[in-house]
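Quick start: read one record
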Amino acid sequence: MTALGRRRGRAERLVQELGFRQPLVPGIYQLQPRLTDMDAMGIDHAVVSISPMLFFYWADAAATATLPMQDPAAAVQELERAVRDLVMQGAHIAPFVEQGTLDDPETMTVLKAAERLGVPVILHAYPPGMSSRLEDFYLRNLICHAARRRRKGVQA
């Protein structure tokens, strides 16, 4: 469950059921502030999850697929379909599914398919409360700390 909340005059926030709070800044849900931020940071092209606000701005954004990682064979088929038929530029996955992790043989079949297709697999930033499952891959440093820094940067 996700809820909206405010805290002592700060910006509106998304509050997820694990307690992770994310500032709801305009660049998350409005295109023009995102493009302005990209220009200010020298970013020419962004890969973001597709949403209706991007339907008319194909030159500025690329679509990525969401894969059914609980069924690796179906995930490979969906990745192939997304890249070949829908011209998507990669996939977005969580760092783990159910009890599995990135080095599970089932997950590796999906990652190898992405490698064969020449597309990236983007790991979706996950709430830091679940970070103990990321330790074997040093992903706590790559995902959780970066997410914390991003949140602090937005608040400053």
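Residues 144-156 have pLDDT under 50 and may be disordered.
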